[in-house]
Amino acid sequence: MSSTLERHAAGAVAVGGLLVGAGPAVVIGDRVSLRTDPPAALRAGVTLAEPATAADLPAIAEHAAAVVVGASWTRDIPLVRAAAGLGLPVVVERRASASMEEWLGLAAYCAGEGDGRVILCEGGARPDLALVRAARAASGRPALVDVSADLGLSAAAVAAGADGLIIDSGTGTGTGAGAAGRRVAEEAVTVVGALLRDETPATLPECRQAIDRVDAALATLLERRAELAGIVQRLKPVGGFAGRDLGRERDVVARMAVRAPALGESRLSAIMNAVIEAGLHLAEERSGR
After folding, report:
1. Whether the Cβ atoms of residue 241 and residue 233 lie closer than 8 Å to each other
2. Quick check: helix, strand or coil at residue 31?
3. What is the pLDDT of residues 106-130, one digit of tens each?
4. How far is CA 228 from CA 116, 132, 217, 243, in A?
5. Were both Cys, which of 88, 94, 107, 274 would link to 103 (CB 3.0–4.6 Å)?
């Protein structure tokens, strides 16, 4: 494990080159399930691998960064015990029939049988995002959400507290979300994560990466604000710079200062004046065209 990963919170789990549970949310796009995928799909560098039988475990130990077990596998405790003892991080996936108590119980069992590196995972056709939040809070363990069945849940999953998203990249079957699906997931972990996830970067590169995520969220919001401001310009009796409502602008800055007290009204006023003027210039350019 790199020194960068070692500095992070004890609750975080390193999976290959990814840190799940501290800092930014992650995207995992290479998962193999030997219950459905051919054995040839398990190649060097796969992040997550799920065994079908105990015979799959040596290959998983050799090639994968983490092993997946299902929370409905309490009927097959010998396989779960052997998987937890591989020396790999264990991803405990809740199946639709499993309760939260069963899910967390199996996670605790795997932690006891292994080295304690356990990650929760919610999957299936309809992931229960409220359950993810509750399970993460109750256990203190990081959690992933498999959004392969509905990439539209990516942003909601990050907002619910997911530490990472799993997407079906077609590693084993030749089908999957592909590059477009990965972009959807990465946009969610970047923009939503920047708004809702706390980060404590410890190095200059980490700080710059965190700033880049915040800047991406800012750009997204500024573009949306400019579009809304353009609609306002079309609705106002007097548009453009002549129609500026300075009283409302002061009220906007005052409300923002409540959320950003360190910046304060004077700094926010200068920032928002630039934002408002940029929006007005854009509206004028569009009306001219």
Report:
1. no
2. strand
3. 999 999 999 999 999 998 889 999 9
4. 49, 34, 17, 16
5. 94
Residue 236 burial (CB count, 10 A): 13
The answer to whether 65 touches 42, Cβ cutoff 8 Å, is no
Q: Which residue type sits at 262?
A: A
Q: Is 208 exposed, middle or buried (0-12, 13-18, 19+ CB in 10 A)?
A: exposed
- Identify the helix (H) or strand (E) that includes residue 165: strand 164-166
The C-alpha atoms of residue 13 and residue 118 are separated, in whole angstroms, by: 7
The one-letter amino acid code at 245 reads D
pTM value? 0.83
With vertex at residue 105, the alpha carbon angle to CA 103 and CA 111, rounded to the nearest 5 degrees, is 105
Pairing of strands 118-122, 90-94: parallel
**pLDDT tens readout for residues 9-31:** 448 999 999 999 988 999 999 89
Q: Is the dihedral of CA 281, 284, 288, 289 positive or negative?
A: positive
Helix boundaries (H) for the chain: 3-6, 57-63, 77-84, 100-113, 129-139, 154-159, 178-187, 193-196, 204-235, 246-259, 264-288
- 213 forms beta bridges with none
What are residue 68's DSSP bridge partners? 91
For residue 109, give Cα distances in angstroms to 118, 136, 138: 10, 16, 15
Q: Distance (Å, rounded) from C-alpha 144 to C-alpha 246?
A: 46
